[in-house]
Amino acid sequence: MLYLVGLGLYGPDSITLTGLNALRTSSRVFMEAYTSFHHGRSISDYERAYGVKIEGIGREEIEGMEKLLDTAVKEKVTILVSGDPLTATTHNMLRLRAIQRRIPLRIIDNSSILTAFPMHAGLSIYRMGPPVSIPFFSREFRPVSPYRKVIANLKSGFHTLLLLDLRNGRTMEPGVVREELIEMSAAADDKTIADSTDIIVGSRIGSDDEVIFQCCVRDLEKMQDRSPMSIIVPAVLTEDERDFLQSFSTIPKK
Questions:
Q1: What CA–CA distances, in Å, run from 150 to 36, 125, 153?
Q2: pLDDT range class, residue 33, cuts 50, 70, 90
Q3: For residue 131, which of 95, 225, 123, 20 has the smallest C-alpha distance?
Q4: What are the CA-CA distances from residue 186 to residues 42, 55, 181 (Å)?
Q5: What is the DSSP string of 84-153?
Q6: Helices 89-100 & 66-74 angle (0-180, nearest 10)
Q7: Is the dihedral of CA 37, 38, 39, 41 positive or negative?
Q8: Which CATH architecture has domain 2-111?
């Protein structure tokens, strides 16, 4: 038996009762930490909260999934995933292989940044375009395609959630986001996104110290780290969206 359990947005308390019951009746519990991260909590924090032994797994174990599935043939296995368990393509591949091997499977959903951040900001979920991943650049890897996807959304009147890459358990620094957006703008020879472009920043969505505010791209350069952080590049806001965003925004603490 295999359970894929979403942990929700922020910390051990975000798990559902259904997910908690699944992991407490499992003989093996794993925590996946490479498609997302757990907001500064360690595995031991989750072990204390849930009263079970948890084994950490990374990219190699998930992508080389047959060993995990071999275990699920003989035992009840739970894999814990930040957010909602099926927002990552890798987890759908794991799901497919479980079905192909006739392993009983249950998906236990939870909240996701894909919906929570836009709705907390007061944006219409029907005006969200495809999310866009912003990876860390390297000397050999400096793509322009993420920028072009954002522009395509804007031309269609859609907002874009930027999914910022992870490094050492933290989201990409705000200054790096700004540098990469400006570089991609130049490489694409398109000035739609510039330092003066309005964006919406959200940090620690779903927590007691959640912060959502509007600023310009240039403001990212001097912004303090707000990991975990997400950014929305909005299309032209409707009147309702403007009112909601103004009402729901939080003045960030210095």
A1: 22, 16, 5
A2: low
A3: 123
A4: 40, 44, 9
A5: -TTSSHHHHHHHHHHHHTT--EEEE----HHHHHHHHTT--GGGB---EEEPPP-SS---SHHHHHHHHH
A6: 50
A7: negative
A8: 3-Layer(aba) Sandwich (3.40)
Of 166, 172, 247, whose CA–CA distance to 213 is shortest? 247
pTM score of the predicted model: 0.89
Q: Calculate Rg over the CA atoms of the chain.
A: 19
SS3 of 68, please? helix
Whole-angstrom distance, CA of residue 205 vs CA of residue 200:
13
> Residues 134-145: pLDDT tens digits?
999 999 999 999
Cβ(41)–Cβ(66) under 8 Å? no
Laid out side by side, the sheet with 229-233 consists of 132-134, 160-164, 229-233, 198-203, 211-216
Domain boundaries, the chain: 2-111, 114-248
Summarize pLDDT for 214-245 with one digit per residue, the tens: 999 999 998 876 667 899 999 999 999 999 99
155-183: per-residue pLDDT in tens? 999 999 999 988 776 788 999 999 999 99
β-strand 77-81 against 28-32: which pairing, if any?
Answer: parallel
CATH number of 114-248, picked from 3.30.950.10, 3.40.1550.10, 1.10.630.10, 3.30.1360.40: 3.30.950.10
